[in-house]
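User: I'm curious whether this sequence folds into something compact or stays loose and floppy. Could you predict its structure so I can see for myself?
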Amino acid sequence: MDYHEVHAMQLRCVENQLSGADEDEYVFVTEHPSVFTVGKSGTLSSLLKSREEIEACGIDIIACERGGNITYHGPGQLVVYPVVNLRRRNLSVAAFIEMLEEIMVQTAAGFGVSAVRDPRNRGVWVGDNKLGSVGIRVRHGISFHGLALNVNLAVEPFSWIRPCGLTGVGVTSLAMENGGAVSMEAAKKIMLYHLKTIFGIVTEGWQ
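Assistant: Here's the prediction. I'll summarize afterward.
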């Protein structure tokens, strides 16, 4: 799904929760066409190609309200946006982010990949290579945005930026780490299982 489309859906869910029109929580699980997004702490100084060169490749650069710096989304990356009420769940922001990281760690383990947290930056890592990112926004206790796990995407566009504003780090994927083909459908199935168990999601209307 287009990044703008999913973003607008999240905002509607947040507003509905805040107004009391809808108290349900939602999880959007998708892939995006190629796009760079720049979080609140990011600047275009993290681009290693010019904006014109990147946009000439048909890739947009979008500023957004999530935390973090610049990152890339594209086909083959599993993106998950939970719109959840942290206050009702009695969750701190730090605890929520750790849950998102744990979902990625457990999903990676399902493919024999040992991913870990790293104090340099939120997300999950294999050695010095980043496997998955986390970036959220909290509005009056409602969290949106979420996580992005590299499943079988082409990682070249990450070389056009300083991922998350960092230098001296690489980017990897589940397919690169386990040395074989990784099915996106299999990754989604494992991811959904851990979303349900870690968040305690009731799966009414789950598609």
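Summary: Residues 130 and 171 are 5 Å apart (CA to CA). The beta strands are 26-30, 35-38, 60-63, 70-73, 77-85, 116-118, 121-126, 129-139, 142-150, 170-171.
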